[in-house]
Design goal:
heterodimer, A: mainly beta, Ubiquitin-like (UB roll), five-stranded mixed sheet, B: alpha/beta, five-stranded parallel sheet, 8 helices, globular
Chain lengths: 66, 260
């Protein structure tokens, strides 16, 4: 199925948000996820199934000052 | 005698250091870690950005930062609307599980001056959502008072444009802000060298936040130490109470007993 991750189209097998993050090599504890513009609480990563057309934003902390 | 319990208190949380530092612009993580350590800072700012999905080879900032030692202050750098800044703060809270945010809403790419109208809008929403909001703002006492009235935990007026190193361009405004608000006043942006940080603290500011002045120095670790000492010296001089300025001399040696 097709989703959008960080603005880019991605074709993935059906999975939970948790499994998708791990498949990308991302530590779920180190990121925040927005699913269709709503924050997805970490506690729901394992129970949330991605659907066709979903849009994900996956962010983390990087060096920055002002 | 001055008591030895001079703490910076933000939203009920106590900090021994009054210097806050950023984590951007360092040559590498090793240099960043050393500079932060030497600076003695306990609050460090970070930015929130998309994870690079296609290239996972790069190390992550949090691999290098001891979260038991430092309070992360995620910023909304690069946001030009209240909406984007609010969205970034919500993501930051989820990523870091802390309510502290450095709120900045920029008005212009050339100056990076704040868009105070959008800043006030964003601050109102974020305070209502339970964030501890530390807003980067102009050195404008009226805006600072509005931010305090909205429930911000501190105000962070700029000394000069971000990354400019021009120092505290309007110490009189900073003084008026200090008289106007009761929340901590933290000079954010503009510091170029140690004396700039000392001046901010001598004015009575509660803290100083900087990034480029340290990370952009020829020797960032040495500059981090200079900034630590400057903030401490400036604070101590403020607490000690400086002498009034006078136009004419006032001899330090007694006039009595002169040989001629």
């Amino acid at each position: 199925m097709n989703i959008t991750t960080n603005g880019e189209a991605a074709s993935i097998d059906p999975s939970t948000v948790q499994d998708y993050l791990i498949s990308l090599g991302i530590d779920p504890l180190r990121v925040a996820v927005e699913l269709n513009l709503d924050i997805l609480p970490k506690a729901q990563y394992q129970t949330t199934l991605l659907k066709e057309g979903d849009s994900l934003e996956i962010v983390h902390f990087v060096g920055g000052g002002a | 005698m001055l008591e030895n319990n001079d703490k910076l208190i933000i939203a009920g949380r106590e900090f021994d250091s009054r210097l806050m530092v950023g984590t951007g612009k360092y040559a590498d993580f090793h240099e960043m870690v050393r500079a932060i350590e030497v600076s003695g800072a306990q609050i460090i700012t970070v930015a929130v950005r998309r994870v690079n999905i296609s290239d996972r080879s790069k190390e992550s900032l949090l691999d290098h930062i001891d979260l038991k030692k430092y309070t992360l202050l995620p910023n909304t750098a690069g946001c030009y609307t209240a909406e984007d800044a609010i969205r970034t703060c919500r993501l930051a809270r989820e990523a870091g599980l802390s309510d502290f945010v450095k709120l900045e809403v920029l008005g212009d790419e050339k100056t990076l001056f704040p868009n105070n109208e959008e800043l006030l809008k964003a601050a109102a929403v974020l305070v209502a959502e339970g964030f501890t909001v530390l807003p980067y703002t102009s050195d404008d006492p009226i805006v600072c008072k509005k931010l305090e009235d909205l429930g911000c935990a501190a105000v962070m007026p700029l000394g000069a444009p971000i990354g400019s190193g021009l120092g505290i361009r309007n110490p009189y405004n900073i003084r008026i802000i200090l008289e106007t608000v009761k929340v901590p006043v933290i000079v954010d942006a503009g510091v170029g060298t140690a004396s700039d940080a000392a001046i901010a603290m001598e004015l009575g500011c509660h803290g100083v936040l900087m990034n480029t002045a340290i990370a952009g120095a020829k020797d960032p670790v040495a500059m981090a130490e200079a900034m630590k000492l400057a903030v401490e010296a400036g604070r101590l001089a403020y607490r000690a109470g400086r002498i009034p300025m006078k136009l004419y001399a006032n001899a330090s040696s007694p006039l009595a007993g002169l040989i001629a």
